[in-house]
Write a structure and sequence with these properties.
Distance between the termini: 22 Å
Low-confidence stretches: none
Largest sheet: 9 strands, mixed
Number of strands: 17
Structural class: alpha/beta
Strand content: 25-35%
Order of helices and strands: EHEEEEHEEEEHEEEEHEEEHE
């Protein structure tokens, strides 16, 4: 299973798409009706879909998987009693599968038979999404839920987050101990450290300083630089997240501590806690479909 894309609804989708293509570094994929699709250099038809809407919310976060894995998901999701429905994707790449609502409203879509596209060149294009992180009222409970209902695995726990993987990448999602449910941030996988640093420079050229970064995390050890996008959410340049084996032993919060005044491995940048917190509250979850049997 792999994380493929996130689908957002928001006012000013065209302006948001312009920022992500002209400044952040994505490539336009297509515009279908009122939805702008943006891609990276990899083989996914898009990484971000921006739908024009009066409100900001997360439509879904999409994973692609095998037919065998989808069949397992149907059984485990039904056994967990989660709200879910069969789905046929109208987004680029098509595909079919299921969409699932977790206990705090997170909407995860799992597709099979979704088509891919030829990669494109571009050293400053993101390759793919590294991870999508959600804020949670009870991150610990959500971590257990996605292990039981989705077959994900908790990789590490810190005092701030529960990190979760769906393959050998240390985390494809995580749940922040925020006390409320919403989108925390979207992370874009860059080709290498130089691409991250060039991205920081590109945004500084537009008088946009990082809200946090550059730095290197503890769990996952990925390089990061977070920005608050003009259209609302927190977005991240990232690279080099760790790969972990099946028998990786999750760390506990006490395993991930820092010296005084240090909140990452490098300790070279300040963090705009207030600005990030406000941005993290903007995109909530909204289900616009009805539950239906998964064998339909």
């Amino acid at each position: 299973m792999k994380l493929r894309s996130i689908e957002l609804a928001l006012p000013g989708a065209e302006q948001a798409a312009a920022f992500l293509t002209e400044i952040w570094g994505m490539a336009p994929a297509d515009v279908v009706g009122n939805i702008h699709y943006l891609r990276g250099s990899g083989s996914y038809p898009y990484l971000v879909a921006l739908e024009e809407s009066a409100d900001c919310y997360v439509r879904s976060t999409t994973f692609v998987c095998t037919a065998e894995r989808l069949a397992q998901l149907k059984q485990s999701v039904a056994a967990a009693g989660l709200t879910a429905a069969p789905v046929t994707s109208n987004d680029l790449g098509g595909g079919h599968g299921i969409i699932v609502e977790l206990a705090e409203g997170e909407l995860l879509r799992f597709l099979v038979d979704a088509t891919e596209v030829a990669p494109i060149e571009g050293a400053d294009l993101p390759v793919k999404l590294t991870h999508v992180v959600f804020n949670s009222a009870d991150a610990e409970a959500t971590g257990h839920l996605v292990e039981d209902a989705l077959g994900f695995r908790v990789s590490d726990r810190t005092k701030g987050m529960v990190f979760v993987r769906c393959n050998d990448s240390h985390h494809s999602t995580a749940f922040a101990r925020a006390g409320f449910a919403s989108l925390n941030h979207i992370a874009f996988e860059m080709e290498d450290l130089d691409a991250v640093m060039r991205g920081i420079g590109r945004l500084r050229d537009q008088d946009m300083a990082p809200a946090w970064g550059p730095g290197r995390h503890g769990p996952g050890a990925n390089v990061f630089a977070y920005f608050i996008a003009p259209f609302g959410p927190v977005i991240e340049f990232s690279t080099a997240v760790n790969k972990v084996p099946d028998d990786y032993q999750p760390g506990a919060p006490e395993d991930w501590t820092w010296p005084a005044k240090r909140i990452d491995q490098w300790g070279m940048s300040d963090k705009d806690f207030d600005g990030l917190r406000a941005a993290e509250e903007k995109f909530r979850h909204r289900r616009d479909w009805e539950a239906a049997p998964l064998d339909a």
